[in-house]
Every structure is written in structure tokens, then in C-alpha cells.
């Protein structure tokens, strides 16, 4: 771990993790937000190049859940789009900020179609790792390696409050996706670093 003016940076292999990932609290509060992160924003969810094949291969499993305008977006743009920064993202529905892959149940309850089918045992791709890792945002560094930083979004303020209320830190809430992306050993080392940092508070 390295202490800088802007806080402690945890390094595990070639991954740099911001101190906030292990010190801040977070727990999604769906009853309040109702999946707003899928329908608000100026671009889709970040995608990894290696996820594109899974999106396409699993499309027959989840496309029937999608809104007609979501399927129309995929027909028009393909399984991904490129945002103004040149990054791969999920396509948005035409004329809206809604992710093409979302669907609704009841008034305003937004869900991910691919994740719903995955939970039903259909397909082998849960959803983009960027969605599952949120509020961690991953940046791939030019010289190699990755940086994990905490992203703060006003629509998630209730999730930060709920996490603090329930004593759940960001890295704890995101245990499964962190292990999915980086492995059990990585998560164990992150927990050890978290224990050390938080004991010094």
C-alpha cells in the first residue's frame, strides 16, 4: 500500500485500488432507486471487448424480455455502441437514456434482461462486469494494469446511506463481482488490506 496526498492506494498485482473502495459504505437500495442506473446517463454501460461475443451468443435467451425499442436499437446499432470517448458501451434505446437490454415490471421497476434469464438458468452470461461492479469503475491504464476507483452518482446516494446504516463497505457489497473478475486470492488480499486500513481509522 502506498500513502499519497489523495489517500491510500492498494496495489494487488497490476491492479491499483482506491482507498474509498475499502473505506466507504454502499448497499444498493432497489426499493428506492428501482434500477434507475439502467435508464439514466448519457451513454450505455461500459463493455469489455471480451464480453461482446457473450452478448451476441446469449441474445436468443434474453431478447424476448427486452422492450421492442431495445431490440430495435440492437438491430440498428448492433450489440454494442461507441461513446464520445471512444469506449465500448451498451446501446441505448433511440431517443432515450434507457439501456437497450433493460425491461420493466410494474410501474417504473427496471431490470436487466440478461441477468433475469441468467438467474432462471438460461444462458451463461450474467451481465456486463461494469454493471455488476458498480459503484467501482475500472480504468485500464496505458502502460498495462487497471485502476479501481469509487464512482459517486447522485441517484445512488440512498445506497451509500443504506451501506453506512447497515455497516456494509463497498468491497464487501461487491464480493461476488470482484471474485468473478479477479479471483478468490485477489479478494482475500483486498480484505486483508481493508482490515489494515480500517483499523487505522
Core attributes:
201 residues; 9 strands; alpha+beta; globular; disordered N terminus; five-stranded mixed β-sheet; two-stranded antiparallel sheet; 10 helices
Architecture overview:
The strands form three sheets. The chain has a five-stranded mixed β-sheet. Strands 4-5 form a two-stranded antiparallel sheet. Helix 3 (52-62) crosses helix 5 (113-119) and helix 9 (175-182) crosses helix 10 (184-199). The protein has two domains: 1-26 and 138-149 and 156-201, no CATH class; 31-134, no CATH class. 39% of the residues lie in helices and 17% in strands. It has ten helices and nine strands. The relative contact order is 0.21. Residues 2-6 have low confidence and may be disordered. The protein is globular. It is an alpha+beta fold and 201 residues long. The chain has helices at 20-23, 30-33, 52-62, 68-77, 113-119, 129-133, 157-166, 170-173, 175-182, 184-199; strands spanning 2-4, 7-12, 15-18, 81-82, 88-89, 102-105, 109-112, 136-140, 146-150.
Strand order of the largest sheet: 1-2-3-9-8
Proportion of residues in helical segments: 25-40%
Largest sheet: 5 strands, mixed
| H-E order | EEEHHHHEEEEHHEEHHHH
* Uncertain stretches: 2-6
Class by alpha and beta content? alpha+beta
**What characteristic shape results from the CA principal axes?**
globular
Radius of gyration: 18 Å
Residue-averaged pLDDT, rounded? 91
Number of helical segments with 4 or more residues: 10
Sheet-strand content, in percent, reads 15-25%
Number of domain units? 2
Query: For the terminal residues, how far apart are their CA atoms?
Result: 15 Å
